[in-house]
Amino acid sequence: MNTSSENTIRIYVMGSAYEVPRGLTIMSAMEHAGWRFTRGAGCRSGFCGACSTVYRQEGDYRLRFVLACQTEAEDGMYLVQLPFTPAPRVSYTLAELNPDENVLLQHYPEIARCVSCNTCTKACPQDIEVMDYIQAALRGDIAQTASLSFDCIQCGLCSMRCPADIKHYHMAQMARRIYGRYMSPVTAHLEERIAEIEKGVYEEEVEALVKMTRSELEEIYAARVVE
Amino acid sequence: MRESIARVEATRPARLQAGPPPAMTPAEREKVLAEFHPDYKAEKKRALSIGVSAGNVVPSEVADMLEAHLLVDPAKIDLSSVDYDVDVLIIGGGGAGTVAAIFAHQEGIPAENILIVTKLRHGDCNSTMAQGGIQAADRPEDSPAIHYIDVMGGGHYANKPELVQAMVDDAPEIIRWHEELGVMYDKENGEYMEAHGGGTSRKRMHSCKDYTGKAIFNPIRDEARNLGIPTLEFSPVIELLLDGEGKAAGAITYNLETGEYRVIRAKATVLATGGFGRMHIQKFPTTNHYGATADGLVIAYRAGANLLDMDSVQYHPTGVAYPSAILGQLATEKLRSQGAMPINADGEVFVYPLEPRDVEAAAIIRECWSREKGVETVSGVRGVWLDTPMIDEIHGEGTLKDWLAAMWTMWHRHGIDITKDPALVYPTLHYQNGGVEIEADGETSVPGLFAGGEVEGGVHGKNRLMGNSLLGYNVFGRRAGIAAAKWAKSKKNKIKTLSLQHAVDFEQQLIDAGIETDIQSPMLLPDYRSKSVLERSLGRFL
């Protein structure tokens, strides 16, 4: 059944039908229909993972997974929001970890339950190869786990769908932190600069700037050479 | 639009060859700002008539929110029953608040004696949305002194010098702390990949692709969780508490889901509530998160905190102008750092791509509404092109998709491939430049109340540079957390009584000044329900 007109579409929010203007995101369409969110709206720009949304398109059997703030509402969408995932996370002390190839498996042993069904990947609104990074974690490849999961916004849809109850996004966060601390090369000049600041190398110069009048600063600013 | 894109494509090879046009002189900058920047429209602002900063000129929307009735009658609150009794209360679960919590703990406050309260979830904040980068002068070609000059010039010399000094001096140490937390900074051959931002004279922008905010904030939040720092979510503060002697003593929270209030007594309080983008100053769309409604300014002002530089608002030069579904969302400055030029409807370059944000924004507004060289969309929005395909032309195919993945994905979800076509952009409300005045350790003019992050005023003067918000929340979140811990540990700062008298008094001042308003504040959340729904609304019965 075609329910749309030139300017409006029909969406179903948890089963109830609403006519809304075309060209709105799912989030704005629901607000237009009268919702005022507490749950299910956060950054409204696709970075926080608060607005995980599941929908089915009229006439289709598949469930699809998107962010309500990043996806345009379309005619015939049956929508529900899942803004919270009760996934447990494991606490750890990063500085005292042994970052070997077993560390992820030790903290999140359920990753070994992965049956390679790829449901997590299909559920990811960020198009991350979730199953691939779970497999990388199983192999002990922390760098690969970190890099494949880099765009994760921790919305939790992967863990909500996983038949093996894996907590993908918490494990991946841990992998990225291990990579960042233990495997990413340290830039030497950072330490050099910190040592210089601690020794007071720039103190006099900055103090002099702090005491300057506006016009003195303007002069220096105008004479800057841009790299 | 297609015809205009063809004109952009036609001039692209020559522009790639020639490089960017020269930057404006200081005099040219002043001229374009005065004529076209929204901040320079005097009729859109007014002076505050009550409170400590009476006489200060602020955007009318801010004045309306500050000079508004209390949300709740203090007589309804029973202060004799304390629900949480803590050493350090942190208001706001974004970047500054979480950093403050970690450093208060490092300074010796046990995790269970710290409490983060936040309006939405822990991490629903602007910190996590930042894309482009964080500044720190760590290269041999750079220095804290050069960083200082860039910040002061960008801020029109209104910044508090000692705050800028603190920020540039702490910056490298903050990056090292992030390394210890496991933040995955972009590196090449073991060196940071550092880029320019608008108004910088050295390349000092550290990035994590274009997810820099998320890639920094999430490990910080993860660390707070590892430390077991308690968090109360969906519980915005509706009023601060004082102790009867004018010292901060905690706060009243409101549970957004059950409607209950809670009384929190705290020896020290850190204000980390972020900014005001969702007030839509001058009806601009915004890049900000859903809860950016100036609550911190409102409650702090009633408690007697001084405000600074609240007359200036940051409009990010490049918000999305098309498609309208994502109008006003951020197109990171990193796109310009990596070579994308703003181009008008005729395919001409009209501005140096990396002017300070206020200047760049004003130049785009001038192009659209004075020189009439903008591109108009079907919904009547005007914008200019950001020539994103230049990025791969300069750095090689695949660069944009690899290093600006969030940007590529955002447009791709709406059927636009920004490696092939330019993106249409227009300024969008982005940042609260001013705020609650702080000293170098985050102290406000209210004893026992500390502030850090976007809610503070003084660091950025009248215009913040790219990469100094992520830096600022780390530097002053840390300093505020440490100072709050020290304050809480000092025996002389005991809380004797809890009082809301300052709120009662503020309401009286409102009446005495003859201010007539229907507005109650803090606002807590914007209301985007349609007019047709609101006109027929009977309220909620259950």
Q: How would you portray this structure in words?
A:
The complex is a heterodimer of chains A (227) and B (542). Chain A has two domains: 8-81, Roll (Ubiquitin-like (UB roll)), CATH 3.10.20.740; 85-213, Fumarate Reductase Iron-sulfur Protein, Chain B, domain 2. Chain A is built from ten helices and five strands; from the N terminus they run ββαβββααααααααα. Chain A has helices at 26-32, 103-107, 119-123, 130-138, 142-148, 157-161, 168-183, 188-199, 203-211, 214-222, and strands at residues 8-13, 16-21, 52-57, 64-67, 77-81. The model of chain A has no long low-confidence stretch (mean pLDDT 96). Chain B has 542 residues and is an alpha/beta fold. Chain B folds into two domains: 2-36 and 315-429, Succinate dehydrogenase/fumarate reductase flavoprotein, catalytic domain (Flavocytochrome C3, Chain A, domain 1, Alpha-Beta Complex); 74-312 and 433-493, FAD/NAD(P)-binding domain, CATH 3.50.50.60. Chain B is built from 16 helices and 23 strands. In chain B, strands 4, 5, 10, 11, 12, 13 and 21 form a seven-stranded mixed beta sheet that branches. In chain B, strands 15, 16, 17, 18 and 19 form a five-stranded antiparallel beta sheet that branches. In chain B, strands 14-20-22 form a three-stranded mixed beta sheet, with helices on one face. In chain B, a hairpin with a 5-residue loop joins β11 (237-242) and β12. In chain B, α5 (144-154) crosses α6. The mean pLDDT of chain B is 97. The interface between A and B is large, with 76 and 89 residues.
Summarize, please:
The complex is a heterodimer of chains A (227) and B (542). Chain A is an alpha+beta fold and 227 residues long.
Roughly how much helix do the residues of chain B carry, as a percent range? 25-40%
Task: Using the alpha-carbon principal axes, give the shape of chain B.
Answer: globular
Work out the number of β strands of chain B.
Answer: 23
Which fold name is given in CATH as the topology of the largest domain in chain B? Answer: FAD/NAD(P)-binding domain
